[in-house]
Give the backbone structure.
Amino acid sequence: MLELIVISTLNGVLFGMLLFLLSSGLTVIFSMMGVLNFAHASFYMLGAFFGYQLTRWIGFWPALILAPLLVGAVGMAVERYGLRQTHKHGHVAELLLTFGLAFAIEQVVQMIWGKLPMDYRVPELLDFPAFTIFSTNYPAYKMFMLLVSVVIFIALLVVLKRTRVGLIVQAALTHPSMVAHLGHNVGRVFMLVFGVGTALAAVAGVIAGPALVTQSDMAALLGPILFVVIVVGGLGSLPGAFFASLLIGLLQTFAVSMNGSLASVFGPLDPSTGASLLTDVWNVTIAQIAPILPYVLLVLVLIVRPMGLMGTRET
């Protein structure tokens, strides 16, 4: 039991930090610009594929730097020539644009790399067990992923709350005309913010690609739970996204490792009742319902606290 708790906690924290690394960019974009980017998970996928391709050409470590820069450049182009043109038509137009962009990116990825998983491997420098706990070897690469996520969380908090750049960016959202009168190019600020947000998603893709499966549907697999994270944490709240990521990561990881059911607690139903559907529900294990638990949590949070656990805005 102790081994199960320790290993599940480690895996849950790791998965939660990966979710945060992915959701941090979307949180920055929304908190600074008010844009809920439905294509954010697609930029994560682009980061993974760019990282895979660059790793084959020049190695993993240069790819870890270059891939996010390339994806960030794509993100800035999307903001400059897409979102900036639709912003005047309201948030619905922005949502539709990013929604269509997600499908376009997926199709482009499939045309270039195909639908089969890529052979994206952990770099040799980190391909060893960091430590052994309860006869289980824990990979050093996973600890590297955890370290990157923590460093980015701290760096974002410092930049947004303690630096002049962060203050200008936040002021550009609420008082754009005043920021413009102070000599700052508001359009350029928004473009850079969107680029940084998509680059953060790409960092998640580059480092998650070797640990997870790099394939053309990876955005669809993580995209929905990404929005669960930012809504549960509170739209635009970076600490909220951090807390919600850890909460959902631990929730799913512990649920997957549990085989308990109503039948195991209260005993099997009397077969003479003839209620086959009720019998099936009675025998469903916690592990089987683990994938839907984050969405149950989302519904509960929206009912009890629509602004999210640490959010301050309801729209």
Remarks:
- The longest strand covers residues 129-133.
- The beta strands are 129-133, 136-139.
